[in-house]
Write a structure and sequence with these properties.
heterodimer, A: alpha/beta, TIM Barrel, 2 domains, six-stranded parallel sheet, two-stranded antiparallel sheet, about 10% strand, globular, disordered C terminus, B: alpha/beta, three-stranded parallel sheet, 8 strands, catalytic activity (chain A)
Chain lengths: ~425, ~260
């Protein structure tokens, strides 16, 4: 019966089913590798990555994000494709994936391929299929664009190694923040099984780094590094725990990115939060991403942002403001003299404007006007900085006072992420009184 | 008397004017304005400068030599923008560069208003160019040529040319800029060229290949199925992908209504 349906299915139907099944995977970035085309095929890669479109949910579409197959032997409770679910099952052939990728790429629809898969028959069998697709793309079609491929936990390390030489980025999903949650929701997967390929990819990359430095023409192994993702809100971990997991993944596994995916209930299960009462925790996801950026680009540590007493982020303030308000003794800082690391910690100053400030102040003293032109968000920064020894307005360095003002600046949140149906009553809100 | 140089709105044109301005007025005030987009002022002397390859090359060499490549590209991008003040502020930047100790660091001197202006013009042009690297959509014509039309504000064709040449070296492709009536043309294994003027055969650009419909349809299907319904968020989508780009994009073309997706 299944066989029959497969032969009848058109490429369009397959694409619809298998992209629909892949949509919950968050990572769609195409950055991390810089590669020129060799002039004999098609494609190149840009360091910063390129988004080619934005779907109705506002997420970028950079790669052709598909599952190779949604036939899966596992029964993970949060997943649409769990073996217990009654959904239409189908698979691509390697040739179909290649044609789709090449034809979409030619028309500048996509930046490359994101290939994930359900586990068909066995991890090794599936990994072999993924390898075949990549091999055909790279060697038969001479494709030099971006390829992100999933390493299937449990597959032979040799297969993973061979695939890694063809891909730009590899990822293994850690799925849930803690081992207990994983045991509860994904009975066929174990933390050890997931971390093993991750460690393997890390070791291979390190070896490859050494080889690249020593010899001239060495094939590159996963040049854009590896990433992972975890589901937020399906299990009761606090932000503090999640951030700690992320931090140790960055430090111990050299991950390039950790993605957070707000839990969207697709299955009913007694171990999952119920379908009806919940909207996806988008605000929480947003705060975690903000904190993630602070870890990667702003030299913050997870322990600084949250601790056991404050295990969750503030719904009203972004993590950087939240930190700054609790460390008012360090502020205000003088823009013209403060160290770069300290500039990074000021709310309203990003890493780009911080480096612009450092360069521009060599040429002359800076004032608030100049900061504005460089892209500093003054309405947030003004409480924490001085220019030429003066603050922009006379300000009391008082936590309550600054908090109140910062809350009034109206942070730009992604629509729907605020999830607030009520707000604190304030005397001067919406009354037109200045 | 302030001297104002009038020139065509092309890189060659503005460079020629800057060349003359630099030669004659580098120690005094001068302006470089665009033909047809200038307002006459009192106490100014106006002179028209013809485009000249030779002058342009000379000025380009001077900028690269004294200000370095990074500053050169910032200035180049700024001169593609739609801002009428671009010629004059670039001239002021060149003057300012003489005053500081290391001229090649001029673009870091954001405290100077002219530098800040050039910086923001260049930023807006390169942002737009980057948007087009993302959003240009090719369609395959009957003869196998990949064709794309765009309506950018700034003259961004030369900014995206190298990117697409490197990406599709074995394809024949054309990008037509409807705003400025310029074509970017690339032939298999050749360097790209700019061709000025109206599109010679508009009808030919409508004859798409047989395969083309199929892939357009597949792409639209993918575009819709990859979105998560529970997270739908048109405002966020609009912030990243403003309406003005959507007219020429396959996934937003009106044919989708007929398919009923």
């Amino acid at each position: 019966m299944l066989k029959l349906m497969q032969t009848e299915m058109t490429l369009g139907e397959k694409l619809e089913i298998l992209s629909d099944a892949a949509k919950y995977d968050v990572s769609c970035t195409s950055g991390g590798t810089e590669r020129k085309g060799d002039g004999e095929g098609m494609g190149n890669c840009r360091k910063a990555g390129i988004c080619h479109s934005f779907s109705a949910d506002g997420r970028c579409i950079s790669l052709l994000k598909i599952l190779f197959t949604n036939e899966c032997i596992y029964d993970c409770k949060y997943c649409v494709n769990r073996s217990g679910n009654d959904v239409v099952r189908t698979s691509f052939t390697p040739e179909e994936v290649c044609t789709l990728t090449m034809e979409f790429y030619r028309r500048n629809y996509i930046e490359g391929l994101f290939l994930s898969s359900g586990v068909l028959k066995s991890p090794n069998y599936t990994m072999e299929l993924l390898y075949t697709v990549l091999y055909k793309l790279r060697h038969e079609h001479n494709f030099q664009g971006y390829i992100h491929v999933k390493a299937i936990p449990g597959a032979d390390s040799r297969l993973i190694q061979m695939t890694g030489y063809l891909a730009d980025r590899m990822s293994v999903n850690i799925e849930l923040p803690t081992a207990e949650s994983l045991r509860l929701l994904a009975p066929h997967k174990t933390r050890k099984n997931i971390l093993a390929p991750m460690r393997f990819v890390q070791q291979m990359s390190a070896e490859n780094q050494y080889e690249i430095q020593t010899y001239r023409h060495v094939p590159k192994f996963v040049p854009a590094g590896q990433s992972t993702q975890m589901i937020i809100g399906a299990t009761p971990e606090s932000d503090y725990q999640i951030l700690h997991v992320a931090e140790s993944l960055y430090k111990k596994f050299d991950l390039k990115r950790v993605f957070y995916s707000a839990f969207i209930p697709v299955n009913e299960d007694k171990n999952l939060p119920s379908v009806k009462e919940q909207r996806p925790p988008l605000l929480r996801e947003h705060r975690l991403y903000q904190a993630d950026w602070l870890l990667r680009y702003y030299h913050f540590e997870a322990g600084e942002l949250l601790d056991e007493e404050n295990p969750n982020f503030n719904a009203y303030l972004d993590p950087k403001c939240f930190w700054a308000l609790r460390h008012l003794e360090e502020f205000p800082i003088e823009i013209n003299y403060a160290a770069y690391d300290m500039l990074l910690r000021v709310p309203g100053i990003g890493y780009k404007s911080a480096s612009r400030i450092v360069k521009a102040r060599r040429m002359g003293m800076l004032d608030f006007e100049d900061l504005k032109k460089m892209g500093v968000v003054l309405k947030r920064a003004l409480y924490f900085i001085t220019c030429k020894g003066k603050m922009m307005y006379p300000i009391r360095m008082d936590e309550d006072y600054i908090t109140r003002n910062l809350l009034n600046t109206k942070e730009k949140l992604p629509e729907g992420a605020d999830g607030m149906s009520f707000r604190q009553l304030s005397l001067f809100d919406d009354m037109g009184i200045e | 008397m302030k001297q104002i140089y009038i020139c065509e709105d092309t890189i060659t044109g503005i460079y020629s004017a800057l060349h003359d301005a630099w030669k004659e007025c580098r120690d005094t005030q001068a302006g470089v304005e665009l033909r047809g987009r200038t307002q006459r002022q009192l106490f100014c002397e106006y002179r028209i400068v013809e485009e000249s390859e030779e002058k342009a090359l000379r000025l380009e060499r001077m900028i690269k030599h004294h200000l370095g490549y990074n500053a050169y590209w910032e200035i180049y991008h700024a001169l593609l923008s739609t801002d009428d003040r671009k010629g004059t502020v670039v001239f002021e930047v060149l003057q300012e560069a003489r005053k500081i100790r290391q001229s090649e660091k001029i673009m870091e001197h954001l405290g100077c208003p002219a530098v800040a202006d050039v910086f923001s013009m260049s930023r807006s042009v390169s942002n737009e160019a980057h948007r087009y690297e993302e959003f240009i959509r090719f369609r395959e014509l009957e003869n196998g040529i990949l064709f794309s039309e765009i309506t950018p504000k700034a003259q961004i064709l030369t900014c995206v040319a190298d990117h697409f040449e490197d990406r599709f070296p074995l394809e024949n492709w054309i990008i037509y800029d409807k705003t400025h009536k310029v074509c970017l043309v690339h032939g298999v294994r050749k360097r790209w060229r700019l061709v000025w003027g109206e599109l010679f055969n508009e009808r030919a650009a409508e004859n798409i290949s047989e395969e083309e419909r199929k892939y357009e349809f597949l792409w639209k299907r993918f575009f819709h199925s990859v979105s998560i319904k529970e997270r739908e968020n048109p405002k966020c989508q609009q912030a990243h992908l403003p309406f003005r780009y959507r007219g020429e994009m396959t996934e937003f073309s009106c044919a989708e209504d007929k398919i009923g997706l």
